[in-house]
Design a protein that fits this description.
Rossmann fold, N-(1-d-carboxylethyl)-l-norvaline Dehydrogenase, domain 2, about 15% strand, about 45% helix, single chain, 5-stranded parallel beta sheet
């Protein structure tokens, strides 16, 4: 098999590359930061406290894939344009990203991965710590079989890894939208406030906004008729039901909060750098909401707040969350949107 090219030596990229190297596949890791490239070629790369493994590290400016190479895209969505411009020959592109990017969608790739494990990367070395276990859902973007010989070889190598659980699925879109439902709630709130993911559940205002955003995201996706997949212990419809039972939601928050302490969203620190994936997260949800006529005041508020703070590269501040609270409205059970969903047929995607 030709070397697998992994673009982005962050947490997910290094974890995927390490799993492939453990299975004996050749790997090229493409990275734009000089220090990471130098460290990778000198010392190899590492996940948790496992042995260092070797791979070819190449600076992005010097990288050019060959025809039919596998290219696993593990960058942020705002870097997609630069990568796609580099793909001047036909390649087999497999993105593992969270957001929705129209330019990437237009590329026409067959396969995709959705990572729900959390991997924290050293900023200067290709060294990663998996801070929260989870799955890698892997399969075709749209319905179809996974009998492609090269894809089978690639996916088989990932299935063997014990770094994360690889689940082969017929279609990745339901899992990507479920990940969006959560990420578009976690990332903007944590990024503007600077708090870790645990405090989204322990701080009363942050928790109220977090739960309201998840519910608004679920309403948008449900109204748009989008199928959602199960990531984590509960299906999104169950999560939406739990969040409407305030006593149960509060109890579950206390249960899950310890496992999230000290973990940070992928948008952390990006506001100060002047670019985020907010348009690929909440911006995509707002487009869906507009098409199906679903109110999305909280998504609009967080999108505007992140954009405004990013424009001036503002430092995170927990106090900014108070300005979002007037938009934090959760429809009651007699809300027309909820009634429409509850009265939908059993075989409809509109079931809660």
């Amino acid at each position: 098999m030709q070397p697998v090219h992994i673009v982005g030596a962050g947490g997910i990229g290094c974890a995927i590359g390490y799993a492939l190297r453990m299975a004996g596949l050749p790997v090229v890791i493409v990275e734009a930061y000089d220090r990471k490239v130098e460290a990778g070629n000198r010392d190899g790369f590492q996940v948790d406290n496992r042995p260092h493994l070797t791979a070819d590290f190449v600076h992005f400016k010097d990288w050019q894939p060959l025809p039919n190479d596998w290219v696993i895209l593990c960058t942020k969505c705002y870097d997609n344009a630069a990568v796609l411009d580099r793909l001047t020959v036909p390649v087999r592109l497999l993105p593992i990203q969270n957001g929705f990017d129209p330019q990437l969608e237009a590329f026409g790739h067959e396969f995709e991965g959705i990572a729900s494990f959390v991997a924290q990367s050293d900023p200067f070395q290709p060294r990663v710590k998996i801070t929260r276990p989870g799955d890698l859902h892997l399969g075709r973007k749209s319905e179809g079989d996974n009998s492609d010989a090269e894809f089978k070889a690639l996916s088989s190598a990932l299935v063997k890894s014990d770094l994360f659980r690889t689940k082969l699925v017929a279609r990745t879109e339901p899992f990507k939208y479920t990940k969006l439902m959560y990420n578009a709630a976690i990332s903007p709130l944590a990024a503007v406030s600077g708090i870790d993911n645990g405090r989204l559940l322990s701080d009363s205002l942050a928790r109220r906004l977090f739960f309201a955003l998840i519910q608004e995201n679920h309403r948008i996706l449900t109204a748009a008729g989008i199928e959602l997949g199960k990531i984590g212990p509960f299906h999104p419809s169950t999560v939406a039901w739990i969040l409407r039972q305030k006593w149960l939601a509060a109890m579950m928050a206390k249960f899950f909060e310890p496992s999230l302490r000290g973990t940070y969203c992928s948008m952390a620190g990006e506001i100060q750098k002047g670019r985020t994936e907010i348009d690929n997260y909440n911006g995509h949800l707002l487009s869906l909401a507009e098409k199906c006529g679903t109110p999305a005041p909280l998504n609009r508020a967080v999108r505007d707040l992140v954009a405004e703070m990013t424009a001036r590269r503002a430092m995170p501040d927990p106090n900014v969350l108070a300005g979002l609270s007037p938009n934090c409205h959760v429809p009651e059970k007699d809300d027309p949107i909820i009634k429409t969903v509850k009265n939908a047929p059993e075989n409809s995607n509109f079931r809660l």
